[in-house]
Design a protein that fits this description.
about 220 residues, alpha/beta, 8-stranded mixed sheet, about 30% helix, binds cytidine-5'-triphosphate, binds calcium ion
Amino acid sequence: AAALFEHGALAGLRVVVTAGPTREALDPVRYLSNHSSGKMGFALATACVDAGARTTLISGPVTLETPAHVARRDVESAEDMLAASLAALPACDIFIACAAVADYRPAQIAGEKIKKEDEQLTLTLVRNPDIVATVAAAEPRPFTVGFAAETRDLLAYARGKLERKRLDLVVANDVAAEGIGFNSDDNAVTLLWPGGEEALPRTGKGSLARLIIERIAARYAAARG
Ligand code: CTP
Ligand code: CA
C-alpha cells in the first residue's frame, strides 16, 4: 500500500466519493428512498485508495464494510449529504458523486407517526438540492464527476447532465439493462466528457471501479496538468 500511495495514478490527491441512497424522513418511522446498495461507490473508494488517493466516503444508509484506509462519514438525507460534501471541499481535488440521491423530500416531516385514515394519501414533496451541481459550481471547484442512471436515451441524457451541471466527467449507467445496475454485482458504463466518450466493458463492480478511477486520473491529469 505504501508503494501505491507514492506511485499510484492518484498519488497525493484527495478524493471524496458519495455513495448509497439517501433517506428522506416522512415521519418518525417512515422514509422515501432509492434503490442503491452502495457497492459501486464503495468499490470506487477502494480503487481510489489503491491508486494512492486520500479517500473520503460520504455514505447514505448501506450495509457494507468501510474499505481499509477510507475516512467514512455517514449521512441520511440529501441535505445532510450536501452539508458533508461542502464540508469536505476544502480538502478535495476530485469529487465523485456516485450516490443515488432522492430528488425530492417530503415538504414536512410529521412529528408523530402518520395514522391511516382515508383511502388515499397525498404527499407533497419538494426538490432536494443537487449535490454534484452545487459542488461543480463551488469556487475553487474540484474535478467533478457525476453518474447518470437512465432507463432510456442513456447517452443523450448523460451528456445533458454533463453540460447542465458543468461536470468534468459523467459515468453513464443503463439501469434498465439485464443483470447490471443498482443492486447487481456487474455493471457496464460509458464515460462522457466535454469532447469525448468511451464505453467500458461489462465486468464486476471491483474491476470496473479500477477502470473508472484509471480514466478519471487520466482526465484529471489532462485537465489540471
Ligand atoms: N445527484 C446529486 N444530487 C441530487 C441528485 C443527483 O448530487 N439531488 C447526482 C448523482 O449522485 C449523480 C448525478 O447527480 O452523480 C445524476 O443523478 P441522476 O439521478 O441520474 O440525475 P438527476 O440530475 O437527478 O436527474 P433525473 O433523476 O431527473 O434523471
Ligand atoms: Ca435523480
